[in-house]
Amino acid sequence: MAIKRLPLFFFLSFVLLSATLCLGYERDPEREKLEQCRLQFQQQARSKGEQRECEQRCQKQYEEQHGQKEEEKGRREDPREDPRVKLEKCRRQCQQQAQSREKQRECEQRCQQKYEERQQGRGNRQEEERNNPYYFSSQSFQTVIRNQEGQVLALPKFTKKSDLLRHIERYRLGVCEANPHAFVIPHHLDSETILFVVQGRGTITLVKQNKRESFNIERGDVLKVDAGTTMYVINRDSNERVRTVSVAQSQNVPGDTKIYFGAGGENPETFYKTFSDEVLEAAFNTPSDRLQKLFGKQTQGAAVKATEEQIKALTQHAQSSKGGKSKGEGPFNLLQSRPVHSNKFGQFFEVTPNDCKDLQDLDSSVSFVKINQGGMMAPFFNSKSTKIVYVVEGNGCFEMACPHVASQSQGSQTRKGVTESTSYKKLYAHLSRGDALVIPAGHPVTFIADQNQNLQLVSFGINAQNNKRNFLAGQENVLNQLEKEAKELSFNTRAEEVEEIFKNQKDSYFVAGPKEFEEREEKGGRGQRLSSILDFAAF
């Protein structure tokens, strides 16, 4: 009999599968196994009671496997997807997969509960970011110049965000983008500038009195531009934008960097038009009507389209950047240098004032961090350098311990005339491309990459000479150097226990990130009070 029933079993399975596909449902292998299990026991059961018992076992096995699958899928979901979209997806799955109206209602209630938790978590996270004086979302950048061929963006003065940033009020962070074959008109800044090439291939020309130099630039190049240097940029590529990020140190009004266009006309406006006709006639030895025509023709904006012939002429004498660190002038490629540290969780590149003469003058450093997906940079602090950080690519988050924000919110607490011990505020923000943040000296901080994306950061160090990076977890944990007695007295526990904990982490610089990162993103980091450096997951 079993041999005769076998074709019927395959036929019914095929009909079931075809109907599912025709109705537009998503293919569910676990559900198909459930139907096959039921059909198989229908053929083999010797009584109705035995058949019901077998079908119940099939249903229980399906629910267990399906629940595990949904849980795993939830962990893989993009935590930044709109919760309302997730809610609708969840409801559709309930409608498609529920065995009864009651099961569907229960499923939809779970969807609604999860949606409300996400909304609450999102609100908590946004509130944390708003109250974080050191974090700037990509929306914080203001447009300085924009047309169809490119744009220049800049963060507002740091002191507009918080007085806690007044020690870097002379600095501004900016981003410049030039479309394929765009030519950025000659200009100069009243600021000393360090730029890092984030994307693309271009040529930058620097003009000083009786001297002109052109350099080809590409991703990873670092270049210092002196204040007052006339410069112009051309995008040599036919498809990709040139994108640079820079830190400018203003020489006049603190934090008020200005762009001056000599070349130009109506748009961008040339500063020549500010002078009187008599002065211009005398300066150029040319009638004013001709000068007015010259200074009135350009109306296309600060970036214009160049032809192939013009690009070839402008780039034919350009020098290529030097690989690795450089003690001379001109750009050098940081990403072609040997990393300071590299392991399976990330890479760290850095150039300091000791490595580059150009950076000595500004007492600055430039570093590039790549944290592989699911990894994190072990908690650390800088001894004296403040870091201005820009998110180049990817997603993740950062956490930082800050005593200044804590003292502002709580005020000074005293008991019997004695100041209480220092308390810390945990500052947290989700990071995505185009965001920026400031890491003050001495502040313990960690960066965590998302589970499914690498996180890439470029950092400009202020007051960088003789700065030391002090790690607080991993093989290079600075606290490993404490004497046994110092550990016992500091942590009020046996030194052996302290040392065992400190030695658990075998990696340096970059370590495996917290497995619950995506869930913490959805819940907004609730309940994660950073009362001690030991709370960091790197341990």
TrEMBL record:
<dbReference type="InterPro" id="IPR014710">
    <property type="entry name" value="RmlC-like_jellyroll"/>
</dbReference>
<keyword id="KW-0732">Signal</keyword>
<dbReference type="InterPro" id="IPR006045">
    <property type="entry name" value="Cupin_1"/>
</dbReference>
<keyword id="KW-0175">Coiled coil</keyword>
<dbReference type="InterPro" id="IPR050253">
    <property type="entry name" value="Seed_Storage-Functional"/>
</dbReference>
<feature type="signal peptide">
    <location>
        <begin position="1"/>
        <end position="24"/>
    </location>
</feature>
<feature type="domain" description="Cupin type-1">
    <location>
        <begin position="134"/>
        <end position="292"/>
    </location>
</feature>
<dbReference type="InterPro" id="IPR011051">
    <property type="entry name" value="RmlC_Cupin_sf"/>
</dbReference>
<feature type="domain" description="Cupin type-1">
    <location>
        <begin position="332"/>
        <end position="499"/>
    </location>
</feature>
<protein>
    <submittedName>
        <fullName>Cupin 1</fullName>
    </submittedName>
</protein>
<feature type="coiled-coil region">
    <location>
        <begin position="472"/>
        <end position="499"/>
    </location>
</feature>
<feature type="region of interest" description="Disordered">
    <location>
        <begin position="62"/>
        <end position="84"/>
    </location>
</feature>
<comment type="similarity">
    <text>Belongs to the 7S seed storage protein family.</text>
</comment>
<dbReference type="Pfam" id="PF00190">
    <property type="entry name" value="Cupin_1"/>
</dbReference>
